[in-house]
Amino acid sequence: MSPEYWSQLLDKTSVMINDCVVGENFLGELQQTVQPIHHECELHLKLDRDGYLFFPGLIDTREIQAARSAVFKQLKDVDELEDPYEEGIFSHRSRRDELYKDRGEFWEMVSNGELLRKVSNGPTLQKITSKIFGSPAIGFDYLFLRAVPRGRFTHLHCDSGFFTRFTKKVLTCWIAFTDITLDKGPLFVIEGSHKFMDIRKNFDNFDVVFNKEQKASIDEDPVSFANKRNAKLLTTNFKPGDVLIFGMHTLHGAFENHATDDRIRLTCDIRYQPINEPRDPRYFGVSPEGTTGAGYGELNGARPLTEDWHVR
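Structure (tokenized):
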């Protein structure tokens, strides 16, 4: 995307967090990782330099569309989407708790859909993460699937406190299943944040389960936080099949979905690690218990679309 086109997008569409508009001067565009795929050393060096790798259209759009349709059908079945459900239009209703006594069981069923797993745990991500690690990689069995209606956003945080108990060699892979324009609440990363040594020190040995006196999220407004460090909030207009990969110390969040068309934003993120590294039993195996031991019921995704999210 050219700088001129990026500027035009920002002129036409506002970006928001917590009902506040983010000024254009605080925003920057994610840099694409050029295809064809780089050699292993190039990928590793780029990740170390930028803190992320952005692969537009990495996943075949047919696989994305099939997985999205399957998820949307299950949301329609609990009355959370209008017909035609393929459009992903929020109904502002829900029968999820009426039809399923256990929210976790429902969301685990949705998250374990064959077509979704073909994307999240399929050969494309396994291949690219193996290249980055320089050795065979494996995806976690526990998946973070998010259907995001209007008004939701994700607070600023890094992932180390959740996923590095057994190994530090973990990558987050974030996958877009719908068009995520700037008003739909796209993910953002704080420019250069993986090299903020004070933040790294604060979270390097932090475990969200054991260190209950400390929050996993950063309470400070992301714009103020980044501005103090002369950094920008990097984002883009995401397309279905786009993948963003980043490490455990890259600070990130998601802008607010403030679009007025009632179409939900569907994404999922999954972690990958080298096969030969120790595996955290919370995230591997049949019906993994998840971060806190509550299974899939602990996720915001397990909540009906009519219900607000929790913040850790």
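The longest helix spans residues 61-77. The longest strand covers residues 265-274.
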